[in-house]
Amino acid sequence: MKARVHVMLKDGVLDPQGEAVRHALGSLGFEGVDKVRQGKVIELDLADGTPEETVREMCEKLLANTVIERFDIELV
């Protein structure tokens, strides 16, 4: 079983990496990009039957900084 965890900065938190990407895209001639938010995807190979709650605990304790980040879990 696999789980994908999508981690993004919460709305309102400054994203300097996203801003750098937005600026670079403009420098390369890509117009119309008003905002970029950069995040990360963490893919976990889990034992069959691992409950989603266990993955949620992993996120809350290590994989995401819940003060400034939000996360979504996708079981595949």
From TrEMBL:
Gene3D superfamilies xref list:
Phosphoribosylformylglycinamidine synthase subunit PurS
Keywords, comma-separated and alphabetical: ATP-binding, Cytoplasm, Ligase, Nucleotide-binding, Purine biosynthesis
Q: Tell whether Nucleotide-binding is among the UniProt keywords.
A: yes
Q: In which pathway does it act?
A: Purine metabolism; IMP biosynthesis via de novo pathway; 5-amino-1-(5-phospho-D-ribosyl)imidazole from N(2)-formyl-N(1)-(5-phospho-D-ribosyl)glycinamide: step 1/2
Catalyzed reactions per annotation = N(2)-formyl-N(1)-(5-phospho-beta-D-ribosyl)glycinamide + L-glutamine + ATP + H2O = 2-formamido-N(1)-(5-O-phospho-beta-D-ribosyl)acetamidine + L-glutamate + ADP + phosphate + H(+)
- One Pfam family name from the record? PurS
Q: What is its main location?
A: cytoplasm
Q: What is its EC number?
A: 6.3.5.3
What InterPro entries does its record include? PurS, PurS-like_sf
Q: Which subcellular locations apply to this protein?
A: Cytoplasm
Per UniProt, what is one GO molecular function of this protein?
ATP binding
Which BP terms does GO give this entry? 'de novo' IMP biosynthetic process
Entry GO CC: cytoplasm
The UniProt subunit note reads as follows: Part of the FGAM synthase complex composed of 1 PurL, 1 PurQ and 2 PurS subunits.
Family membership: Belongs to the PurS family.
State what this protein does: Part of the phosphoribosylformylglycinamidine synthase complex involved in the purines biosynthetic pathway. Catalyzes the ATP-dependent conversion of formylglycinamide ribonucleotide (FGAR) and glutamine to yield formylglycinamidine ribonucleotide (FGAM) and glutamate. The FGAM synthase complex is composed of three subunits. PurQ produces an ammonia molecule by converting glutamine to glutamate. PurL transfers the ammonia molecule to FGAR to form FGAM in an ATP-dependent manner.
Protein name as it appears in the record: Phosphoribosylformylglycinamidine synthase subunit PurS
